Amino acid sequence: MKQFTQPILFxxxxxxxxxxxxxxxxxxxxxxxxSPWNLNPxxxxxxxxxxxATVNYRDQWGSILSPVPFRTYAAAFEHRLQxxxxxxxxxFGLGAMHDEAxxxxxxxxxxxxxxxxxxxxxxxxxxADHYLSAGAQLGFGQNSIDWGKLWFSRxxxxxxxxxNTSLPSNEPxxxxxxxxxxxxxxxxLWYAVFxxxxxxxxxxxxxxxxxPKISLIExxxxxxxxxVTGHAGGQFPINDQVSLLPGVLVMSQGPAxxxxxxxxxxxxxxxxxxxxxxxxxxxxxxxxxxxxLQADAITIVGMLELNRWMLGLSYDITxxxxxxxxxxxxxxxxxxxxxHPGEKRxxxxxxxx
Length: 353
Prior knowledge:
Elements: H1 5-19, H2 36-39, E1 51-60, H3 62-65, E2 70-83, E3 88-101, E4 106-124, E5 127-144, E6 156-157, E7 162-163, E8 181-193, E9 199-207, E10 227-237, E11 242-253, E12 256-268, E13 275-287, E14 293-306, E15 309-318, H4 323-326, E16 329-340
């Protein structure tokens, strides 16, 4: 266990530095480890195989907002190439996200191109493989509202005592939507993979470095806060079949802060056609602006790994004061990942998130 001492010390110092001014407003997934494209650009290409395809779906607060709950859709594709004759890699990919919220269908749409370079720092036979990955994403985004779903006081018909959307609203910004904007993200990731297939990773990312303008009104003064993310975790084998996968995520964006931490337990049959099961629980803590930090939800996770596929299902159980309104029914989430094998079988050099 001595080889873990230095990374754990580095992790503690890193998280302490992040927590000084940490905050989150972007759409996010409880299964953040199953949505690497949206977590850290440096995770582009951190997998074993030739290419990876990922899709994610989240449905939140359907119990109190039905039939218009908050919904988030995401998809990404990454292709990895070996560089030279060593164990360095370059990866390129494309990702997209659509998020919608509320009766007016406030929507955020993003499409991004990304790339990363994975440099082997050390490794070899009977040695841990240490890698450093640096990645970046450049994308296009736009926010909008379906104004047809809204009505205003001028459209209230006093005769029928009902809204009449055929009447003019006389709202100066009706039908406005944000202009298309460029978005730039960057991140770093260090990880080590050990002989027993255990691994440890530590990463950080900054999204919206250019602070794009996202105003829905004509003044065009509203900008998107930069999001700062720190995350760490690993896989620690107990025996040949059972492993522990702990993790922690810290996010800061403007006035908002969130941290997720928890543990998945993984069982594998260690066969050539590998079948593995995961189950775990995660806690989410966030700030309530002036009221400080409070526990928000407990996420129960179940995942199935079958050869090249990984399917994840999770449910958020609300434990904040909102539980009184939604009877603790928070969000449902599903993730699906496919790993296409490389042209030749090689030893494991990447974590299996």
